[in-house]
Amino acid sequence: MLKLDPSDPLGVLYLIDTYAIRARQCEFLIDLTYSKMFQDRSLSYLPNFAMHVALAKFYLEKEGQEASL
Asked: What is the pTM of this model?
């Protein structure tokens, strides 16, 4: 949806973090937070993004520990 219309008229960026965590797409969510589109809109100040990015990093770390066992 964002590639069709980058101006985001439907507010997809406000929900994409929730969907990414539910789909276990942690790398996508972390990459999104470093993208120019994300930085330009100051979405990192929203509490849902802060929580979900931390949760994504936790899941990735947990997967890394399980793989090393």
From this structure: 0.78
